[in-house]
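Many introductory courses stop at the sequence. We go one step further.
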Amino acid sequence: EVQLVESGGGLVQPGGSLRLSCAASGFTFSSSAMSWVRQAPGKGLEWVSTIYTDISNTYYADSVKGRFTISTDNAKNTLSLQMNSLKSEDTAVYYCAKDCRWVVGGTRCDYWGQGTQVTVSS
């Protein structure tokens, strides 16, 4: 069974950094499309970043480009999101997800983690 378990969320001041991790199991992680998706309070799901783990192609939403970095440790089946220069608008629950696609009105993914809260506040 596919399992995705996020960790690393917490409270950070604007301009600070956090690193999120996602422990993956139950599938071939080294040949997967993995994403981070977030949901801010009162808002819908927002795609953040995707990595294709076999070729390491990465993609970022404009809102986080240049500040966030997605990466994998394929030997450990771990997905990471390094978040720098955090802003208050980055406050959200961050989800690790597998096999996402983008449709009218939002993001659909086949598998989701439980989410980890990131709060950016002074």
